[in-house]
Amino acid sequence: MDGELQVDTVALRACVRPLLDLGAEVSAGATCVPAPHTVPRWSACDPATDRAGAARSAMLALAASIAATGQAIEATVADYDAADARSAARLRTFR
Predict the structure, then answer these.
(1) Cβ contacts of residue 19 below 8 Å, gap of 6+?
(2) pLDDT tens profile 31-81
(3) 0.70 exceeded by the pTM?
(4) Beta-carbon neighbour count of residue 88 at 10 Å?
(5) How many whole angstroms from its chain centre is CA 52?
(6) Cα distance between residue 37 and residue 29, in whole Å
(7) Domain boundary assignment for the chain
(8) What pLDDT, on a 0 to 100 scale, did the predictor assign at position 1?
(9) Residue-wise over 22-34: b if at least 16 C-beta within 10 A, else e?
(10) Which of 15, 29, 91 is nearest to 62 (CA)?
């Protein structure tokens, strides 16, 4: 098995901004979920209110997950760059 690992950090970094933007867009979309009419007070309003709240919560959780994925990619790329820099520094000491 080849022990060489190559990571395209430029391509990974290019994914981060679109992911963060998508997370923000989904989060903003959660505010667009219409609240059901609660006047007059009908028993059918309760399930609709619950569903609207669940939809908002699900969208906010999805937005947070998308943003966390973008941040994790960013951190991983930074870790790869730091590992490459350490390896290059070690190799320079052997020359």
Answers:
(1) 66, 67, 69, 70, 73
(2) 887 766 666 777 777 787 888 889 889 999 999 999 999 999 999 999 999
(3) yes
(4) 9
(5) 23
(6) 19
(7) 9-89
(8) 54
(9) bbeebbeebeebe
(10) 29
Taking the C-alpha atoms of residue 71 and residue 20, their distance in angstroms, rounded to an integer, is 8
Confidence category of residue 87, pLDDT binned at 50, 70, 90: confident
Q: In terms of C-beta density within 10 A (0-12 exposed, 13-18 middle, 19 or more buried), how is residue 43 classed?
A: exposed
**How far apart, in Å, are the Cα atoms of 25 and each of 53, 74, 82?**
18, 19, 32
- Chain segment 12-26, per-residue pLDDT in tens: 999 999 999 999 999
Query: Distance between the two ends of the chain, CA-based, in angstroms?
Result: 27
Instruction: Count other C-beta atoms under 10 Å from residue 77's C-beta.
Output: 19
CA 59 to each of CA 2, 62, 71: distance values in angstroms, whole numbers, following the listed order: 42, 5, 18
Per DSSP, 34 falls in state P
Q: For residues 87 and 52, give the distance between their C-alpha atoms in angstroms, rounded to a whole number.
A: 52
